[in-house]
Amino acid sequence: MLALLLAPAPLLAQGAARERTDASPIQAYKLVLVGDSTMAPHSGWASVFCAKHVKSSVACLNLGRGGRSTRSYRTEKSWDIALGEAKVPGYGATYVLIQFGHNDQSSNAERWTDMTTEFPANLRRYVEEVRAAGAQPVLLTPLTRREFKEGRLDNTLEPWSQQVRKVATEMKVPLVDLNAHSAALVQRMGAETATQLAQLPPAADELAAAKAGSTLKPRPVPEQPVPSADAAGDGPRGVVTRKFDYTHVGDVGAGVFARLVAQDLAVAVPALRSQILP
């Protein structure tokens, strides 16, 4: 009896082995977000969306890049990367969210597209290729700029948004009408309050104009250089340029618009509703 009491604990446990079972396979989802700087990390809403508005069963990848249009995103091969991600197996469903317009409107030779012909044609091609990859496309109208004239929002991206809506209807693609809903929200805020959505506070003259119900002409936004493929491993670290403007968003703005996208996506894609957090 004494020998039994003094026996090491592992020996005592051998006679009562614990049962072991396997976990059930999860139902995983994937979201691939494609767009411009209003979606990109540090200047857009999508990283906050991925961090705060999806469950852990959702792999959420923000591939938004500053200064890109429906044309340049493809020609620089970023679209090839997105399609590769869309083809990765193992997910119950993969969705590719596509939001462009800001830089298609640009005069930059690498970016601009014709609003009524090339822009919708590029969107159609994106939709077709996402479907061919076995994923499901979701179109987003472009986030509104926050420029005001005498108390009214000057939504210069509305005509481009209408082209996105037409393609979504024509091709039966779920639509998140971010332009309409963000424009309505910013209009309710007014020019002064909307300055709080930017990356940095406005200068004194910019704030004074906003208080009067208008905004000054946007100051130029520095270009975001594309890293060289052969950059030295011991080269300088990357730098994020933050400034006040009426297009890009800081932490507050990203939170506001990420929440808006989450609300709209849960309605536009009912199959994702249980995976989207408010």
UniProtKB/TrEMBL annotation:
<protein>
    <submittedName>
        <fullName>Lysophospholipase</fullName>
    </submittedName>
</protein>
<dbReference type="InterPro" id="IPR037459">
    <property type="entry name" value="RhgT-like"/>
</dbReference>
<comment type="similarity">
    <text>Belongs to the 'GDSL' lipolytic enzyme family.</text>
</comment>
<dbReference type="InterPro" id="IPR013830">
    <property type="entry name" value="SGNH_hydro"/>
</dbReference>
<feature type="domain" description="SGNH hydrolase-type esterase">
    <location>
        <begin position="35"/>
        <end position="182"/>
    </location>
</feature>
<keyword id="KW-0378">Hydrolase</keyword>
<dbReference type="Pfam" id="PF13472">
    <property type="entry name" value="Lipase_GDSL_2"/>
</dbReference>
<feature type="region of interest" description="Disordered">
    <location>
        <begin position="214"/>
        <end position="237"/>
    </location>
</feature>
<dbReference type="GO" id="GO:0016788">
    <property type="term" value="F:hydrolase activity, acting on ester bonds"/>
</dbReference>
<dbReference type="InterPro" id="IPR036514">
    <property type="entry name" value="SGNH_hydro_sf"/>
</dbReference>
